[in-house]
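Hi all, a correction to my earlier message: I attached the wrong file for Chromate transporter. Here's the right sequence:
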Amino acid sequence: MNQQNEKRGFRSLLEILFVSTRLGLTSFGGPIAHLGYFHEEYIRRRKWMSEKNYADLVALAQFLPGPASSQVGIGIGVMRAGVVGGIVSFIGFTLPSVIALMIFAMLLHEFDATNAGWIHGLKIVAVAVVAHAIMGMAKNLTPDNKRKKIALLALIGTLIWQSAMTQIGVILIAALLGFMLYKRHDAEQETSSHFPISKKVATICLGLFFTLLFALPVIREITGSYWVAMFDSFYRSGSLVFGGGHVVLPLLEQAFVPTGWIDEEAFLAGYGATQAVPGPLFTFAAYLGTVMNGWLGGLVATVAIFLPAFLLILGALPFWDQLRSNPNIKGAIMGINAAVVGILISAFYFPIWTSSIAAPIDFALAAVLFTMLAYWKLPPWIVVVTGAIGGVLLGLI
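and the right structure:
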């Protein structure tokens, strides 16, 4: 009987790995598109969980900081085959883009291509992509004047005081404002769901998440270790991202560009290249780590930036029913999401716009790419290829 259970469990893990890897190779279009791919594959085709449980899982991932689509994928793996299933699901969905971006980083370093025309084109792609993300997020996350004001304050604060600590402070202040302004926000009627994680395991995961968040900076100061500093910077960035993968851009930029660990040209080129690969945007960290410290740096960066997402989704699953029915918690999250819009607009101006749009012809190319993405609804990889070709042509003018 035990052998049968082991075989069944092993087959489940292989199936999760196969399906998640296929999604990791084909899921273009960002986190919202990923959730659509997941729904089609896991819910409609394979019926691994009910529509209700999937909706609950998506809501939880939107509630937590971190990469929403990756957290949903982890949660599906957990509900299918336990914690190991979550790990396997994550590996399958994430590894293809990690490998692609690490190879890109190595080629960029090998051929010293940071000043090539196509790299400039990729930087302009980043302008179009982030502008498109801002439009969608502003519409959804700042629908009323109160949240528009929170976004404006976040924009002004992060432009005037450009540091990672400012962004943390802005997020905390926005949570407080959201709590005060929306504490009477009506809680929706929700039905309960069952998630196969014990509260003991969940508490350990949450404890580890906060322990690392507060202990890593201390260990970094005491040891002076480059690797601890690198792990801490990626871990902190992964811990504080509300609103999707694009929001990790300003956190990573503040963590690595001013310190000289990576120059702005290489940073934006990698961000543009990230749009051309399937899978989660957080795999941008694999590119950054590889540029800084080769393939080992890429692996360390990937583990560090995704670890908070893992710990949070495992830690929050058993408590989700209580959290989502609390109007005060909902109000704080509404304030944070509004601040995210302001932070992203700030990053759109600096460093993206200031280091990519140097002439009217650059803006013209950005407008074309934005139109392709936002109005013609072309696949992101076509937009990236067009941007790279456009950058080469601009260099010939």
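Sorry for the mix-up. The chain has a mean pLDDT of 84.
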